[in-house]
Amino acid sequence: xxxxxxxxxxxxxxxxxxxxxxxxxxxxxxxxxxxxxxxxxxxxxxxxxxxxxxxxxxxxxxxxxxxxxxxxxxxxxxxxxxxxxxxxxxxxxxxxxxxxxxxxxxxxxxxxxxxxxxxxxxxxxxxxxxxxxxxxxxxxxxxxxxxxxxxxxxxxxxxxxxxxxxxxxxxxxxxxxxxxxxxxxxxxxxxxxxxxxxxxxxxxxxxxxxxxxxxxxxxxxxxxxxxxxxxxxxxxxxxxxxxxxxxxxxxxxxxxxxxxxxxxxxxxxxxxxxxxxxxxxxxxxxxxxxxxxxxxxxxxxxxxxxxxxxxxxxxxxxxxxxxxxxxxxxxxxxxxxxxxxxxxxxxxxxxxxxxxxxxxxxxxxxxxxxxxxxxxxxxxxxxxxxxxxxxxxxxxxxxxxxxxxxxxxxxxxxxxxxxxxxxxxxxxxxxxxxxxxxxxxxxxxxxxxxxxxxxxxxxxxxxxxxxxxxxxxxxxxxxxxxxxxxxxxxxxxxxxxxxxxxxxxxxxxxxxxxxxxxxxxxxxxxxxxxxxxxxxxxxxxxxxxxxxxxxxxxxxxxxxxxxxxxxxxxxxxxxxxxxxxxxxxxxxxxxxxxxxxxxxxxxxxxxxxxxxxxxxxxxxxxxxxxxxxxxxxxxxxxxxxxxx
Length: 644
Known about the structure:
The chain is α/β, with parallel strands linked by helices. Helices cover about 40% and strands about 10% of the residues.
């Protein structure tokens, strides 16, 4: 039963995106929260301080400030990147504006100058282009962009230029700076608060000073009574705390609230009182219900003991977790996300990896939307299935989803969507495709799925007709034994048929791949790479990425390690963050060495190289011969005789 809507609060609520998340599109949490709060009559606004920080630093004035810090360094501490920046400073200052404007799509004609490689100064990041050598002395990037790919080539070169400047910023100003994982080590699985506390007490860097100034501007412009800082990743925690610190210094009466994916995953045992020097409240899981309860509390209509999934510090200085049990807001009632207030024309579409699937994550201003809350499968043993964002599945009618899509296209003027589900349900995707086609909508969309048998060739064609351009899915370790242990609910031959169905429909397929899973042997790894080789060779997948398995405390492996043949290493006492946990695998395999071979092979497979070679050639040492039949995938696809 749904709780009655809360009466509108008179307080203005400002939701902020802290650095760093993405450069090309807003992280969707503030859009969802702002849209929801407005649907309940709350005066809600939003801002993206992550984007504004980048635009301030990478501007002519920002480069002047970076140069001042760089010149103040002793010569022996000036890295090659810094020395090159100082030597060519006039060119950097003159070109940073046009390069950023080009990546924002505001000055497309400058592409010709950028693509010439005579316009932008080139630092260390351009050295990677040396691996592409044209034996005839021509353009070494012609293989990627061809004769008419000027715009994309310029985007790639401008991205390398921006990465060069980020290297300078890191070497001369703040060694923690990265575009995505800013100061990540201060927060990721940090059992204690001390590393973050020391960083926040240290003299501010130029990055800190700019961020504090942006926080002050946001306070002046929006005049909020409540500020929400949505922190999805460890790499945005430090920025969020710096913003909260600036707010408390200037306007201590403003209520600050921390939430988002990082808190939901890593702060479930929070007991550190110093966190509340920066934040008045920390909420867990979906923010809608906790925020409604918090606003009622701040308005004097609800006592502190009736807060929902919320940490606070009491008068004695003790951290208390308040959880008055109330039903969550149904997914169908969370409202339509809104990007009102975010500078949509100022995001930067970057092209740092010459991989068609990775490009979707970093290039283009995608509207992010969720088809359903949680995961309909929620069984995978490596996934945090015990947490709400995965474990509580809740859908919505296709007509409602299509209404949200229509509203977003009208608001933003852009028709590209990234469905950000853990795994979009095939039944819901079919219904949504039918609804979009019935309405005659022309959108483009992509998202994450499971490679399950429900995705028939007929359904894949239907999804393509509705605008699907790409899907990503977890193949993980291409081994039926390990897939069963993982509880993936798929087999390798099934994955082959499903991925081929998507590919035949003209949909790009990206495979998430994993190595180092408990009990995975060298033989398993060699066999997995052979399966992957065959999938590329058969045109089933066009893109992939190998990542090292990490055990988390909320996953079935972390909760029941004995079932997976491993022993967890003891964790220190936790007062702040807890997520990743090391484990002892009796197999004793050197997974790091194997990982280097896997990623090298995958990079070449994505470029059509080495598909006819024995997979053992990619490994540094001796490894066993694969046990996978040479034409396994062809047989699974019905393209070879059963005994071939």
